[in-house]
Amino acid sequence: MSKPLYPILLIVFFLLSAIGYYAGWSPIIQFILSAASVILVAGFLGKATESVAHYAGQRLGGFLNATFGNAAELIIAIFLIREGLYDMVKASLTGSIIGNLLLVLGASLFAGGLKHKVQNYNVSLAGLSGSLMVVAVISLFIPAVFLKTHSITDQDTDTLSLIVAGVLIVAYLAWLLFSMITHKDYLSDVTDQKDEELPHEHAPAWSKRTSIIYLVIATIMVAFVSEWLVGTLETFTTQFGLSELFVGAFLVAIIGNAAEHSAAIMLAMKNKIGASVEIAVGSSLQIALFVAPVLIFISYFMGNTMDIVFTTIELVAIGVSVFIAKSITQDGSTNWYEGLMLLAVYFILGVSFYLV
Fold first, then answer.
1. How far apart are the C-alpha atoms of 304 and 26, rounded to whole Å?
2. Taking Cα atoms as reference points, which of 172, 218, 198 lies closest to residue 49?
């Protein structure tokens, strides 16, 4: 898409989504316009984040890409919680985790591998990230097993959910301390030195100040289009006979992950596969260890706590995704075929979720 055309489409679809929402157009038309707006705004958010990340450095840049890339999912989930659609919230969290590990990472490895035969990155970072994802799976698996095999009160369920959420948030904050401060050099990417030698190879389009301003504007736009999208989901789901599980895990997740898609794939094609892995795996970690627990606390303060008990198919999907992603990334090198394998698993899960 040409540069002059993109901002025009962004503004046009944003305004049409606003008009459709407030004028009460058909829910299907509203859904199409809102979905297109979310994708375009997420792309704008991704570009602004990448520009800010250029000034912050690659490791912090990957974290910023993951964080603001998850802004759409977080905001959409908050509006879903307000509507009481807890099953769709948990499905969207599941979809975000498997989408980042399989779709975003898979597409990045595939695209980067087609252009560069073999790409290398920090094996220690990949190993630690994979182990942390296993911890996340365990933390989701244990409450589900206990709550589905033992009869406990709703109050105890809420208490367990809040305690597990608190532990996960602490674990995530400790990971940030470990990866960003105490062991920053240990986890630095293998391409960092090359980037230092060519500091002007990929100069950002905007200044530091402009990038930050655009980042704030994009985040505000995401908040609006997310509310408009959520307002159409229930009608859209009912009219087309789709399950909340499929809509949350795939449609909402794919739309919300647009920022990670574009940023991670572009970086992989520039042979910055370490940053791509940081975005995809780091985003999944952030969803599992921070966003999901924060949403549980948000629901608590809204007056009706969302439990942390995921369905069996959601747990299986997350577990399978973590297993294959950890297996592929643990050696510190990638190629296009490994990306294709991740995409194949994502397709299989998508068909399974659709048929549930």
1. 31
2. 218
- The bridge status of strand 333-334 relative to strand 119-120 is antiparallel
Tokens of 149: 């095999």
How does 81-97 read in b/e, with b if 16+ C-beta sit within 10 Å? beeebbbbbbbbbbbbb
Cα–Cα separations (whole angstroms), residue 129 to 78, 112, 283, 285, 346: 27, 21, 11, 8, 20
- The mean pLDDT value for 172-200 works out to 66
What angle, rounded to 10 degrees, do the helices at 71-82 and 208-239 form?
A: 40
Confidence at residue 196, expressed as pLDDT on a 0 to 100 scale: 44
Report d(CA 98, CA 318) in Å as an integer.
Answer: 6
- The closest of 332, 342, 284, 233 to 94, measured between CA atoms, is 284
Mean pLDDT of 286-307: 89
What is the Cα–Cα distance from 19 to 39, expressed in whole angstroms?
Answer: 18
pLDDT in tens, 147-184: 777 777 778 888 888 999 999 999 988 988 888 788 77
Q: Cα(322)–Cα(94) distance, rounded to whole angstroms? A: 12
Q: Is the pLDDT of residue 190 over 60?
A: no
d(CA 182, CA 175): 10
Residues near 240 by beta carbon (within 8 Å), at least 6 away in sequence: none
SS3 state of residue 191: coil
Report CA 307 to chain centroid distance, whole Å: 21
Crossing angle for the helix pair 105-115 and 312-329, to the nearest 10 degrees? 30
Rounded Cα gap, residues 41 and 127, in angstroms:
33
Residues 6+ apart with CB under 8 A from 290: 168, 169, 172
Q: Report CA-CA distances (Å) from 183 to 141, 151, 329.
A: 29, 44, 20
Helix or strand (DSSP H, E) at 139:
helix 123-149
- In this prediction the pTM is 0.79
> Considering the chain, what percentage of its residues have pLDDT values greater than 90?
15
- Residue 116: DSSP 8-state: S
Classify residue 289 as left (phi > 0), alpha (psi -120 to 50) or beta: alpha
